[in-house]
Every structure is written in structure tokens, then in C-alpha cells.
Amino acid sequence: AGMIRTDEDEYFIEPLERGKQMEEEKGRIHMVYRRSVVAQHPTDVLPDIHTGESLLTGLGALSSLHDHIGTQLNETLRRRRHAGDNDHNIEVLLGVDDSVVRFHGKEHVQNYLLTLMNIVNEIYHDESLGVHINVVLVRMIMLGYAKSISLIERGNPSRSLENVCRWAYQQQKSDPSHAEHHDHAIFLTRQDFGPAGMQGYAPVTGMCHPVRSCTLNHEDGFSSAFVVAHETGHVLGMEHDGQGNRCGDETAMGSVMAPLVQAAFHRYHWSRCSGQELRRYIHSYDCLLDDPFEHDWPKLPELPGINYSMDEQCRFDFGVGYRMCTAFRTFDPCKQLWCSHPDNPYFCKTKKGPPLDGTECAPGKWCYKGHCMWKNTNQLKQDGHWGPWTKFGSCSRTCGTGVRFRTRQCNNPMPINGGDDCAGVNFEFQLCSTEECPKNFEDFRAQQCQQRNSHFEFQGSRHHWLPYEHPDPPKRCHLYCQSRETGDVAHMKQPVHDGTRCSYGDPYSICVRGECVKVGCDKEIGSSKAEDQCGVCGGDDSHCRTVKGTYTRTPKKLG
């Protein structure tokens, strides 16, 4: 099987009689057909072809091998984001048919799938995407043989996708708050649901739709993570680079949404068009805004290749019997993973990508960023943890309620190699000097305006500045002052000092770092207690009474 590309079209080559052994002289009968014929599909469903496979035959091709593996040691390491408040979470149901389970084995398939989904998540964490997306596995279902063959119709990708989407809809938890309620379904199979080379099929802009938020993917090794990311990209609204947009120039550099998926572990990014298309639709995907539940999946090593040898990765990529190609020993095995079958050890194949980071490449060494390096724990991802709190500093005011701060740093240890930043805030504050100021003590906001009298010029002249409370509540913790001479209001381009009252109408709430902090009459942060009619904090008006009456007195007559 294979593909021929010309200027006019692409042609698929596929054996006509599956399963027959090739006769020594006659060979096997093949059929050839245009890709444009296959491409007659609904415009809102996109099939995807993956041609990331190269062949290397005999020792004479060694020079072409070196052409494929020339990457630089000092290439910039890929940066990853940590989760944050602006993240979108795609909660995923992963459906796996019997062909995948049998190939990997029941005892190993779960860890393999978790590793694969972790790679998909890392692809979506690449900063080139420009939107914070987490791919979160909430449920995994492994199907039996009978159900698997009923869902996948060989050579009929649209019907297979329809069956898979309907099946995923039937698995949905009715309660949206259920821990296993999913936003999106990913289905993996090793069955051939389309013509040779077809790796995925997905509806466009189907995310969050009850029936259309699903993808069908051909699983053939860890490089399938890029197919899964690509198909999910379609469901998020992304088009093929260069087809309907102007990003065709990025496909050769490994863009994830290239029409022919060529991205690899050492070379991938999201094109500028993918980011633009995603931002066009992401606001409409409300199902991605909730926080996912913690799921008790087995913990995996920091580097995915620690659990998988090169021989195993070759078997995943090309099938049973394939092992790392040993015909050539003059290159770094971590540049690209080359594989061969014992029946023809000099016929080596590659998917144009390196082994996984963490794959053992020599005694005491592992692959890291496409290079065989001495094992070093400093290369592992390390999440950040907080250091100790400092002591509280001095109070911002001497009376009338101020604040004092203490801080901590995310350095125990610091996050490195894509590790998560520390969760929570790096400062805390508490109220201090809560006693009332003397009656003759000048208003704190007025003091800050008055300090500008000697040096702040407005419209070419100096003024006597008076305090001004902005009518817009969010701006009241920024310093605005009003000219006594002209009545003009000027923004002093800085927040008021910590401890300044937010409003003259609220005697307790104060400004802290430019934000209004609610304070009750009990001098507690966040308290809603107020004085009652009797002037009692948190009272119920029972400590005083209203006296009503009429006072009548006749004035004495003069005389």
C-alpha cells in the first residue's frame, strides 16, 4: 500500500486481495485510485491522511538517512504552560475497540493509552496554540470483539464515524455534574475504516454537541497522538492549513493541522491559522468551562519513554515482529526511530519522528529532545512548591485601619521542564492599626491629593488638589483628585495607598493593591456586618428605642 503524489492529484495504491500471500513472480494485484474520488464527503466532516513513513533499503541509502536526522543540539526546548483560571478543559471519553486491546494486551493497554493521552495533552499545551486547553481523560471503555466489528465498517469512514458518535452518545452520563460526564469522545481502532493512509475522521465545529463531539482515529503507535490532536482540532473548528486559509507555508514545519499529518515529537506546532480559528469558536463551547474532577488513574513516569523500549515502539508503529533497525550504527538512535522486520533486516522504516523522551538508548543513557544523553533527573518535569512565609511587614497606616503583608516564593523547589507553577497566591495581608484616628486627623485620600500640590502640573499649571471619589466603583481605589481652582478632575495614574477607604459612603471597606476589600464594622475582612440604627455593630435595633411625642410650650408674653 502507498500513495503517489503528482501536481494534479494524489493516488492511493492498495492491495485488491487482502490476506493472500504474494506469489514469487506474479506479485499481488493492486488497485490505484485518485484521492479526489475519496474526498467526495460532506463538507463538515474531514478525513485525514497520515504519510509520516519512510523506507530505507540496504546500506547504499545511508546518506539519505543522515539527511533525515540533521537536527541541532542547541534547538530551543519546547515551553509548556501550567493550568490556570483561563484554561478550557476537554473532558474526554476514550473508546477503544478490540483490535487495539488485543494488539497491546489487556495487561498493558491501559498504561499505553494513558501515555498516549498524556502526549495529546502536551500537544495542546504548546504555546503556539495561544489558548489554554487541557485534555482530561474522565472515562475509558474497552469494547469486545462483537461490538467492535459492528461499529467499524471497513472502507466506509462516514458510516463508521456515525456509528462511533452514536455509541458515544449512548455512553453519556445524564447528570452533567457526574465525574464521568464527557464533553468529547475519542475512539481508537486498528481496523481499516477508510482507504489506505486514512488516519482520522471528524465533524468540524462539533465540540460540546451531544452527537457531533467525537472523532474516529486509527491507532498505530505513539505518533497517533498527533492524529488524535489533529482530529480534535477539527471538532474545535480548525481547518487544514493551506485549505481555506493562508497557512500552507507552515505545513512543512510540522504544523498539527497540515492536510497530511507530518508533525513529530521533535517538530510540531500549531499554525497561526489554527489559533485564529480556535479563538473564533472557543467562546461558544460552554462545556469546556467547568473544572474536571480528579481521577485515580495510575501514575505514569515523568518521561513517557521510560516504560517503552525502542523495540516496543517499533512494534506499535509497524506491527508484530518489528524491532529497532540494527543495520546502521553510525547515527544517534534518538534522532529518528528506524525499524525493521527480522525477515528483511536491511529494509528499515521510519515515521520520521524520534523515540519518546526517556527511551533507553545506551547503558545509563536515554533519549531526550532527539538526542541520546546521560540520564539526568534534572531533565524531568518538576512541579513547583511554596517556600515559607515571610514575617508580616509594617502597617500601611498608624490609625484608621491599614494593612500589612507577608509573602512567599515558589522556590521549594521552583517549577522546571514544564512543571506546574505553585497553586494559590504569593501574598497575604491582615488588617492593622484599626483604632480610630483623632478627630483633627486629615482624611487619608485628601492627604494623598494634597501631596501633589507642589509638583503635579495639569494643563500647564499647578493646582490645589482635593480628594475625588470616582462614580465608577471599580475605579475608586485609583487616585483621582479635583482642582479647587477649576473643578477639573485628574487621574494621578496610581492606586491609592493601602488602607484608604473605598468610598466616603462606606466607613469600613478599604483599598488593597488597587482593589476594594470588603470590611465589616467588626473590622474583619469579608464581613458584611454593619451598624444598626442604634450604632451597634451587627445589632438588631434592640439597644435603643425611638421616642415620639409633641413638645408644646407657650412663650411668655413680653411686658
UniProtKB/TrEMBL annotation:
Gene Ontology cellular-component terms listed: extracellular matrix; extracellular region
Residues of the active site: 231
Chain positions recorded as Ca(2+) 2 binding sites: 91, 290
GO biological process: extracellular matrix organization; proteolysis
Localization in the cell: Secreted
GO MF term set: metal ion binding; metalloendopeptidase activity
Residue stretches making up the Peptidase M12B domain: 88-292
Binding residue positions for Ca(2+) 1: 91, 183, 287, 290
Cofactor binding annotation: Binds 1 zinc ion per subunit.
Amino-acid positions noted as binding Zn(2+) in the UniProt annotation, renumbered to this chain: 230, 234, 240
S-S bonds: 165-214, 208-287, 247-273, 314-339, 325-348, 334-367, 361-372, 395-432, 399-437, 410-422
Keyword Acyltransferase included in the entry's annotation: no
Keyword tags: Calcium, Disulfide bond, Glycoprotein, Hydrolase, Metal-binding, Metalloprotease, Protease, Repeat, Secreted, Signal, Zinc, Zymogen
Name recorded for this polypeptide: ATS3 metalloproteinase
Gene for this chain: Adamts3
